[in-house]
Specification:
single chain; alpha+beta; five-stranded antiparallel beta sheet; two-stranded antiparallel sheet
Amino acid sequence: MGTKHSRLTSLALRTLLSFFAVLFILQPATASTYTPPPTQNEADFQKWVTDFKKQALKQGISQKTLNIAFKDVHLNLRVLELDRRQPEFAQTFWQYFNRAVTSWRIVKGKFFLQKYHSELSEVTKKYGVPERFLVAFWGMETNFGGYTGNTPIIESLATLSYDDRRSNFFTKELISALEILDQGNVTVDEMKGSWAGAMGQCQFMPSNYLKYAVDGDNSGTKDLWNSLPDVFNSMGNFLEKLGWQRGENWGREVALPKGFDLTLADGKTKHPLAYWQKLGIKLADGRALPNEVMDAALVLPYDYRGPAFLVYDNYFVIKRWNNSDSYALAVAHLADRLVGRPGLTKTQPKDDRSLSHQQIIELQDRLKRDHYDIRVLDGIIGGKTRQAVRNYQINNNLPPDGYPSYRMLEILRKNQGE
């Protein structure tokens, strides 16, 4: 009995410890609870730096640059915290959009569009990217250069390279940052940016700086912190290389007819405008779609009550800058507003509410309980979760918009009797 009781007690203890371990992992990290793994300490980090310098020398980085770059570099625990932190809440489209496309940003963007018209028009002629888009990206990335980040780039990238989570990616970026210093484009003290290594007024990662940065003012350096000609030309060059189509728009807000098949709004599948026109889609103001030979995909960034967009090739170029529909739509719409085009015809519903990390897991769990294809309860809204939501909606006679929302969570709770 004693042995059996001891085994049962041990099993119960292990089960309890496993439960609390999982519970801890699912909690979003905060400044007050974050503790780095025990192996990550300053002494170990400095050993890593010593080994890294040897490899950097072999890759052509000068000893002088290495000495200067790593003079005061230490393990940055704040960078590790930010890299590991899971967002506590997933912003809805409206929450993101309304913070991105503000009256202040529109007014400021119009001012800069006029102030720098001469410089911007030259970039447009050279790369084919309209002025309003250059200003919109500039506004979205750093509030028109108002905030470029104050984290030392070498220290942040060294910390993230030392960490095992994404070491290969950040080690390549660190080498690129050192190459930039080797070229004399910027000093170590000037090289500051985001905690993840994005730099300058257009927030290029170091590898993109090396590929796309342009000396727009012919000063002999590529200064994305202080030279607007360099900033504008670099953005134009980047977008052109990503595939920007000259003379084409990004897309338009549209109006869907009553009873429209929302499963067609996958944001990926392209059809000729004539195809969408036959399905009854019009421009948001009621006019017919343009009679142009262009392919477009239908994007529904919110639920069935939100705006709908037909988007062209340049929309997907914007997404190559930042692979987010909310970001791409904010940049594109901001660009339109800078030249006097109207705001969206839809407005934020009163019941718009973000989902917490735990609520997303609950949504996924409830879908899985009803035998929808949810393989991992990870609290991340991805393609699998959206498709499961859409399938649930189809089977329950709901508008199949595929949008995981707090409203959908409440519907699941009610239908499952909880």
